[in-house]
Amino acid sequence: MRKIVILGLVGVLALVLAGCGGGSDGPPVFTATILSDQPSDGDIAFDSIANSFTVSQGPDTLFFGIDSLGPNQPEYRAFLDFPLDGSTGEDIIPLNATITFAEVRVSVVSVEFAGTIPTLLDLVTYTVGGLAPSDFNSPPLTFPGGAPAFRSFDFFSSDAGFDVAIEVTSLMQEAQRRGLPDLQLRFLLDFVPNAAGFVGIDDRPTVIVTAPILIVRYF
Length: 219
Prior knowledge:
This protein is mostly beta strands and 219 residues long. The chain is built from 2 helices and 14 strands.
């Protein structure tokens, strides 16, 4: 994962217009950019004291992590949905495409209660526009060998106010292998000992410059 300066609208449009690359020795490589489907994005908070879940669908800020210091605080998990079939007017990833690279860029609003937040990013499936409490603990999808499809990385307190790029090539390749119509991802606190922290991700559909975006290269 690497921090990047927040993209300007011109930069995003340049990526959208980046059609083919590659040289004469191989097939042309295309670049697709896909904004997340904000009405289908969301987060889920679990209150262990009340044993209850609170689902927020389509908020302007998505949260994951522990929402305070001390024991028995609510835990949040955040969900992003990137349509791959053009159903929201974004670029289409052809079903026969071979994925060579993929990354998700998110704009970090806040990082609280810890300087380093160990994070898991799961490949999941959930009902588009219908996030449910059961999605909080649903098992991630698996790679062909049976291993859970996820990747681990850290957010840092210094990420607040910046875009962060997260490489997701293996997760996108698995979604493509399965023929999924959407790339759906879940952010959660890693299960390592003493993991803590609370991260806010900008998800305002009217502010394209900071909206979550998936960038895919394929041939």
